[in-house]
# Entry
Amino acid sequence: MWTIAQVPEQSTRPLNPRQAVVPRPGRHRRPMTAPKTQKEKASKRKRLLLIVLVVVVSLGILATAAYFIKQLIDSKYFFCTRSVKFIPIDKACDGKDDCAGGEDEITCVSRFTVNTTFPVRLMSDRRVLQVYSPGSGWRSVCSDDWTQQHTETACKQLGYTYKPRSTSVPVDALISSLKTGPFTAIRPGTTTTPTHEATIDRSVCGSGSVVSLSCSDCGQVGSQDRIVGGTDALIENWPWQVSLQQGGQHICGGSLVSPSWVVTAAHCFAGSKKELSRWRVVSGLTYISTVGGSYVDRIIVNGDYNAARNDYDIALMRLSSPIGVGVGRKPVCLPPKAFGLPAEASMVVTGWGYLHENGKVSPSLQKAFIPLIDQAKCSSPTVYGSAITQRMICAGFLEGNVDACQGDSGGPLVYFTSSHWHLVGVVSWGVGCARERRPGVYCNVEEMLNWIHTVIEKNP
Ligand code: 4AZ
# Structure
């Protein structure tokens, strides 16, 4: 075996064996492949490193430039893949085919009007399960023969289900409008039949109690006292809050009501904002960022939305894949029907909206505690008069100073009760921001429950 140790440092054997090579004193022959000096090696390594660095930096610059160019093109044009051409973005989703095969009119916001009654609901702050039938109307479900299987079936009908539980509430403990019925009870042997088709009317509950449902761990957060500063908020405390973005820009707020569904305002999709592929839903961040947003595969605007009056200002967005629920990403609870918000209930509005009427979007999430304003007071001629409909609620201070503003639109107005946060409003409109006698107006979520449940059921 030829090892390094066997290599003579200076061979005296001639290359031509007939001619002897006499080593001359003081002069050394250099070997055929001279070993590099330490200095040479270091400089070669340095040169290589420099080349790698230049290549990496150039690639980085190129990628960044490509990203910004793409953002710029995406913000102005829609690309028709089949006919390989760009069309101005406002020609996409305008009701007219501009690409071959109408490609520009496929992935767009849709409208949906509900004209039926979603047959299952939770009633009052006790979350009493009620079912609807055209013949009998709404009836509270007795606890008689109710099982965990029935709980799972009913919760599935209501949308998002995680660790569903049911409890019994004595009829005597109900609000007066529910005490006298009407009631209904489950027919035994109907565990997987939709709840409203599995019941039989009863004049009284044999067990003396009705079913109360808790379908998920919605609206539950850790302690609230980790908030730093006056109005700065941490996403961990408001984990349903999301930022709806287009072309890397925050456009509206929204609220997760399940891992796949975001409730927001219909007016966020006005004008050229109807094309689905341009939207991203950024969740789990206190400081707004444009990276890592979820894609959206459906946007459904309330079909009764009236842009001139801001009436029915609500929309639902379905995420292409559900978000992973964690400390910064959790759904908020939808309120039950007849939630019974107390007068001047202290609620919280959150968002990255303007910090002043003519300001700009806030880099960090903000929160504000604001009281509910009585409907009659908000509809008085010195406030908003006849502009306030049944689909709206007002919140804030008549003296001004604290309010939602541009960019908060679509975001949550929440109320804490029975150890859960509930989505009672969606930021909708107002005259200016924080002006005297011009409080914030919110879409009344309680009035939209039928529409929300129907949309979610029809788009599994
Ligand atoms: C807006 O332009 C907006 N002060 C949102 C909320 C309010 C006003 C304007 C309420 O999106």
